[in-house]
Amino acid sequence: MNIFGVMDVSGSALKAERVRAEVVASNMANAETTRTPEGGPYQRHHVVFEAQNGGTFQDSMVNQLNGGSSISTGSGFKNIYTGGISGGLSGDLTAANPTPGGVEVTGVIADASKPLQRYDPSHPDAGADGFVAYPDINPLTEMVDLMGATRSYGMNASAITAEKSIFNSSLDLLK
């Protein structure tokens, strides 16, 4: 992870949560849509998140300290700094211990649930039996998803603000 690692990770989360909020807003906006270009009622959509590969802590340290040159996996982090670090390192830093990375949206998928059937013979999309197919969208579920996206967005924005504060404090020390 580089010096801007927190911003990279939180920035990816901001983008992903923005997409999630947009999909939730689309679901709420189309909760009563009975006619789509594909035919039939609107289908609820879900956002699929996937963790980005952050690499190992060892790789990140080597890349930061050696200008990007890598070492073999078996050489170990402790062997790089023979005599350079006093005291013991806790844990096994040579293991494949991935540094947490960001998140990315890998897709937006349509919900496969069946549409809700409501009796409304006066509706223009009513069938011969008087039932209309509506999307299976629960406003409460959508609001919970929107609140989750909003909270996650806020947390990541706070992480970026904290990182900026760390940068400013470091710059103040150099003055």
UniProtKB/TrEMBL annotation:
Signal peptide: none annotated. Keywords: Bacterial flagellum, Cell projection, Cilium, Flagellum. PROSITE patterns: FLAGELLA_BB_ROD. The basal body constitutes a major portion of the flagellar organelle and consists of four rings (L,P,S, and M) mounted on a central rod. The rod consists of about 26 subunits of FlgG in the distal portion, and FlgB, FlgC and FlgF are thought to build up the proximal portion of the rod with about 6 subunits each. The keyword Membrane does not apply. It comes from the Bacteria. Residues 129-172 form the Flagellar basal-body/hook protein C-terminal domain. One of its GO terms (biological process) is bacterial-type flagellum-dependent swarming motility. InterPro entries: Flag_bb_rod_N (IPR001444), Flagellar_basal_body_rod_CS (IPR019776), Flg_bb/hook_C_dom (IPR010930), FlgC (IPR006299). Its main location: other. Residues 7-34 form the Flagellar basal body rod protein N-terminal domain. This is Flagellar basal-body rod protein FlgC. GO terms for cellular component: bacterial-type flagellum basal body, rod. It is found in: Bacterial flagellum basal body. The keyword Nucleus does not apply. Belongs to the flagella basal body rod proteins family.
